[in-house]
Amino acid sequence: MGYRVVVVGATGNVGREILNILAEREFPADEVAAVASSRSHGTMIDFGDSGKELKVQSIEHFDFTGWDMALFAAGSDVSRIYAPISAAAGCVVIDNSSLYRMDPDVPLIVPEVNPQAISGYTRKNIIANPNCSTAQMVVALKPLHDAAGIKRVVVSTYQSVSGAGKQGMDELFEQSRNIFVGDSNTPVKFTKQIAFNVIPHIDDFLDDGSTKEEWKMVVETKKILDPKIKVTATCVRVPVFVGHSESINIEFEREMSAEEAQKILRESPGIMLVDKREDGGYVTPVECVGDYATFVSRVRDDPTVDYGINLWCVSDNLRKGAALNAVQIAELLGRRHLKKDV
Asked: Taking CA 335 as the corner, what is the angle to CA 329 and CA 337, rounded to the nearest 5 degrees?
């Protein structure tokens, strides 16, 4: 007997990707419900490449009773109302929004990094999925931290427009086209022109001058990996449709060479090391789209500190940064806690 799984926000970018990955990975589900707002009620949506279609149901009238887990990908406003309803009905919530990430009673999980923390879900029947930029970074940091103890991380991100949803992708497409034909390219979703430009501003500004996206990377890394690690981030939106990139500088407590880091990363779960010191011997966002892995390239020593390295990290933000991680959490939850004869 398999699981009964709900995907909330099934018509959005991440929701569709969750359905794709559930099908690709042959998740042991007896039944999958596609749930979205009343606007989408009754429409049909593909369940990956399985050939099956699901009829979208309205969340306003959906009964979570009898369902095993609900993967939420509809934003904080929806999660604030319906995640507690799902949890109270006995359906474990795996939430992709930022709403519960820093709640001390809600585990924040990246399965390759802190799988043991998932046991804390019983306090609220809710598990949080981290921010997309945090998720790929901690996958790369974890094995290095285990080996030499990370003191400090300086990260600059190059985040694709899909992180801002369909509106962000549409705006990049429309602006690029309009610039070529001489039409207006007035920004709507973003604060400045995104086509042929970069914007050092993601999410709201905080009092200290950082943005909320940068704050998320700091506090989430501490919660997932180690509260003692110092993190500083600069998050930048770039004119790429899918795939986040990060330039990461790491300072260690003990000796760690680039060669040793390469060896460790090559053998670590969830990571694909592509690091040849030649033209094209690294991974770019275009090449990571549709892949499960977190790719690491450009590993090299940092001579400005006693024990430091630099690396380049790339991942499909709609997959590892959101949908894949949510499905991996569901798989972990099933294996360790909601065991069925599957």
From this structure: 85
Separation CA 316–CA 293 (nearest Å): 8
Catalytic residue among 132, 235, 288, 313: 132
Q: 91, 145, 235, 244: which is the annotated catalytic residue? A: 244
Q: Helix, strand or coil for residue 265?
A: helix
pLDDT at residue 340 is higher than 70: no
Domain ranges across the chain: 3-129+322-336, 133-317
Domain 3-129+322-336 sits in which CATH superfamily?
NAD(P)-binding Rossmann-like Domain (3.40.50.720)
Is 313 noted as a catalytic residue in this protein? no
At residue 336, does pLDDT exceed 90? no
d(CA 161, CA 148): 35
Beta strand 244-252 pairing with 150-159: antiparallel
Residue 201 a catalytic site member: no
Topology of domain 133-317 in CATH is Dihydrodipicolinate Reductase; domain 2 (3.30.360)
Three-state DSSP state, 295: strand
Tokens of 177: 């086209």
**Cβ atoms of residues 28 and 3 within 8 Å:** yes
pTM, two decimal places: 0.95
